[in-house]
């Protein structure tokens, strides 16, 4: 029930680890993400590290106690992470507890690690967290398209925003979306992310890129600006698509080859 390894060994073991549970077990894999009801036994289990007793506490400083389930001992993640000098964060979207060394950087997930892709973009109203890299800097961003207007509804909103906006050409129509982007984390807190229309690539339902660049004045607020770690930008963007396109989509952060990035459905 007690730690028998030295501090450096435990640091090496936990560095960069992500476990899909709020607690972890000694000697067994983490609990599955499926919610289950368990009968826990609290019997005054102690934790020691290098012979010194650890007083486990939660994020609010309240005491928490290890417990046992069916003979297996479980320890509070935050308390153990604090004792080992590790950082701990909770990823709500992935239902994952992430442990890392101070100043350490988690690897950028592979494209396949995301539940969304070019062929299965993020649906409207769904917040999606992803990594965005540019040069030597990278950020963790949570983005969501919360509202979408298309066709005449979009045009009426654009015309009300600015009477000099041009109507869509024949065979085309506008899609007006409201979206938000929060910069959750930055490799360098002094480096901001620049959000603007040109940062998005527009594609048709069959994944053919729209190459024409068409701009109009959107309603306020406009989705345009620089955001530092902890900040959120919210506003409108307008896109021009074919009237016959059943499911246009955009990607943010793709490289020059079209690889990577976060894909979002526009309708």
Rg, Å, rounded: 24 Å
| Main sheet makeup | 4 strands, antiparallel
Any guess at the CATH architecture of the largest domain? Sandwich
Total helical elements: 3
Structural class: mainly beta
What's the SSE pattern?
A: HEEEEEEHEEEEHEEEEEEE
Indicate the CATH topology of the largest domain: Immunoglobulin-like
Number of DSSP-assigned strands: 17
Shape: elongated
Q: How many structural domains?
A: 2
Quote the distance from N terminus to C terminus: 53 Å
CATH class of the largest domain: Mainly Beta
- Please indicate the percent range of residues in DSSP E strands (runs of 2 or more): 35-45%
Task: Output mean pLDDT.
Answer: 82
What oligomerization state is this entry in? single chain
Record the strand order, biggest sheet.
9-10-11-15
Low-confidence stretches: 1-33, 108-112
- Percent of residues in helices: under 10%
Structural descriptors:
267 residues; mainly beta; Cu_amine_oxidase-like_N; 10% helix; four-stranded antiparallel beta sheet; Mao_N_sf
